[in-house]
Specification:
Blueprint lengths: L2 H8 L18 H28 L2 H13 L14 H9 L3 E5 L5 H5 L7 E6 L2 H13 L6 E5 L11 E7 L7 H12 L2 E11 L7 H10 E8 L5 E7 L4
Parallel strand pairs: 1-2, 1-4, 2-3, 4-5
Antiparallel strand pairs: 5-7, 6-7
Helix pairs in contact: 2-3
Length: 242
């Protein structure tokens, strides 16, 4: 049998009917654009839903979302604070006292603090996956006694002591706008006489500007440090405190 005959036997119809559904063809430019726009729309829709759950969802839904993202490695970047060195500012006000980290994630801030700068550190996060990670890192660093961690929504967490520093490390974004001021006023009751809030935000000039404005309007701003990329660390305390 010739080579030509063999190929005819393997593929008896080398010129398939163009009307067949299984033919190989390239999408038209219009269809490609339509698919691209549809994918972008779906991505925006998913991001909007994710943001709504993070900020307004019930506790179980927020916990499930954050657990999934921490387990998938999405927040590995939080295992270092990079160039922002927020621990330096916390140490300035800690007075060798107690630090509360609301939204502690994998516990990076508590490990970057000098052990001599504070007596006890409490980390709180809604993700039990993050809390377990933070605890295991503290054990590895020899700070299992000095650093403690709790699984809780920071909106409802009730401290059992007063703190010299209460820190929000980018977690304040995820508080509903109408809840920010009541939450800060509630936590003000857990500050020591000279205690301060410290917050870190990566955006105080754009859509999150209202958070900074709320704090500046209702509290005494006592320190502010900004980077060229608009990231900001600021310290504040209840108005009227010395």
């Amino acid at each position: 049998m010739s080579a030509e005959r063999s190929r005819e036997t393997q593929n008896p119809n080398p010129y398939p009917d163009p009307s067949r559904k299984d033919r190989c063809s390239c999408d038209s430019p219009e269809k490609h654009v339509k698919n691209l726009l549809s994918a972008r729309f779906m991505e925006k829709l998913r991001n909007a839903l994710r943001g709504a759950i993070q900020k307004y969802g019930p506790e179980f839904a927020k916990q499930r979302l954050w657990n999934r993202e921490f387990s998938a490695g999405r927040w590995v970047c939080l295992e270092t604070t990079g160039d922002h060195r927020v621990h330096v500012h916390i140490e300035r006000y800690a007075n060798n006292g107690a630090v509360l980290d609301l939204g502690c994630g994998p516990g990076t801030t508590g490990l970057e603090l000098s052990p001599q700068a504070y007596s006890c550190y409490t980390g709180v996060d809604i993700s039990d996956v993050a809390v377990e990670k933070a605890h295991s890192r503290a054990v590895e660093a020899g700070r299992a006694i000095q650093n403690q961690y709790f699984h809780s929504d920071i909106l409802t967490f009730c401290p059992t002591q007063k703190y010299d520093v209460i820190f929000f490390g980018d977690s304040i974004y995820y508080i509903p706008p109408r809840s920010i001021l009541p939450m800060l006023r509630r936590y003000s009751g857990y500050l020591t006489a000279k205690g301060v809030f410290i917050a870190r935000m990566f955006d105080v000039t754009g859509r999150h500007r209202y958070i900074f404005d709320t704090i500046e309007r209702d509290f005494d701003l006592i320190g502010e440090w900004r980077n060229a990329d608009h990231a900001c660390i600021f310290a504040f305390r209840p108005r009227g405190d010395e």
